[in-house]
Amino acid sequence: MSDLDRVRQRLAASQRLAVLTGAGISAESGVPTFRGPGGLWCNHRAEDLATPEAFHRDPKLVWEWYNMRRTALVGVQPNPGHHALAVMQEKLPGFNLVTQNVDGLHAVAGNSDPVEIHGNIWKVRCTACHAITGDHRVPIPTPPSCAACGALLRPHIVWFGESLDSDVLERAFAAFEYCDVALIVGTSGVVQPAASLADLARRRGAFVVEVNLEPTPATGVVDVALHGRAGEILPQLLPG
Ligand code: BV8
Ligand code: ZN
User: Fold this and answer.
1) pLDDT in tens, 47-100
2) Would you state the pLDDT for residue 148?
3) Range(s) for CATH 3.40.50.1220 in the chain?
4) Average pLDDT for 148-161
5) Which residue intervals of the chain bear CATH 3.30.1600.10?
6) Does the Cβ of 209 fall within 6 Å of ligand 1?
7) Residue 170: CB atoms within 10 Å
8) How confident is residue 40, by pLDDT bands cut at 50, 70 and 90?
9) Which of 118, 130, 156, 227 is catalytic?
10) Active-site residue 227, yes or no?
11) Which fold has domain 34-75+119-157?
């Protein structure tokens, strides 16, 4: 039996599927990844932009980086990989999607209630009253101020060195603690705590599958590693 068939069979029989996605699932929609060729961290240092210190030092620079990313996302559509996960949610019982992506494309593709552990680029949060609001202005006037209290707004995104929202983290860990199949798609597996979810599922006895262009640190601990594009592989995993 081929690896694809093994995974198809496991998915069709799964009662609680947990999926973790990273930037790789949005690559075929034209969204740059972080660490691959042409990745965002190739031209910028993460420490200079995606940290609270960077924002405190130069909020305008950080907002210009996010305006560049928001502008690049205008008109971007989900790809067959995103759509396949929306179909899986419809067809399979107990489906949970956890994403590290901030682009919002899973919701556009039709997944309801994805757990966005690193936040969402289309939301802003007030640095004073902490109000969280949707904001699709492209570009956002920099630096933006809160409509309610006038204080500086920041992207509602988790930066390096910042703790993740505890409720969001709890939902993400519960999904992988109790799943019977885990699908790890398009992530380099270097950022914690997201990178620990695959091993959590394995330790709890789940069947773990990785979908990635290339091997990652998780490849050694998964049951099946499917190498190729998520937009080509995921549709082939759908139940008939
Ligand atoms: C926290 C926001 C508690 C910005 C992001 C030392 C050791 C270990 C850990 C740490 C350490 N020091 C600090 C830490 C913790 C740190 C961390 O993990 N650092 C790492 C880098 C060493 N983590 C944190 O700080 C987290 N908070 O732990 O809180 C705490 C508190 C204080 C102090 C310590 C701990 C917060 C992490 C969130 C950071 N924010 N982004 C923004 O996005 O605007 S992370 C950033 O990386 C993105 O959000 C992204 O989601 C994430 C992961 O990247 P990937 O999605 O995996 O993307 P990448 O480009 O890396 O890989 C793409 C993959 O896709 C590749 O494998 C490629 O082969 C594949 N691919 C490409 N095309 C395709 C494909 N696959 C399939 N099909 C394709 N077509
Ligand atoms: Zn405010």
Assistant:
1) 789 999 999 999 999 999 999 999 999 999 999 999 999 999 999 999 999 999
2) 95
3) 3-31+78-118+163-237
4) 97
5) 34-75+119-157
6) no
7) 12
8) confident
9) 118
10) no
11) SIR2/SIRT2 'Small Domain' (3.30.1600)
C-alpha span between 104 and 123 (Å, rounded)? 10
- Return the ligand number nearest the Cα of 133: 2
What stretch of H or E contains 91?
helix 80-91
Closest CA to 210 of 240, 230, 191, 193: 230
CA distance 199 to 192: 12
Ligand 1 centroid – CA 35 distance (Å) = 9
**pLDDT digit string (tens) for 164-209?**
999 999 999 999 999 999 999 999 999 999 999 999 999 999 999 9
Closest ligand relative to 144 C-alpha = 2
Tokens linked to 236: 């082939």
Q: Is 166 in the pocket of ligand 1 (CB under 6 A)?
A: no
Q: What is the C-alpha separation between 96 and 104, in angstroms, rounded?
A: 16
**CATH among 3.40.50.1220, 3.40.50.10330, 3.40.50.1100, 3.40.50.300 for 3-31+78-118+163-237:** 3.40.50.1220
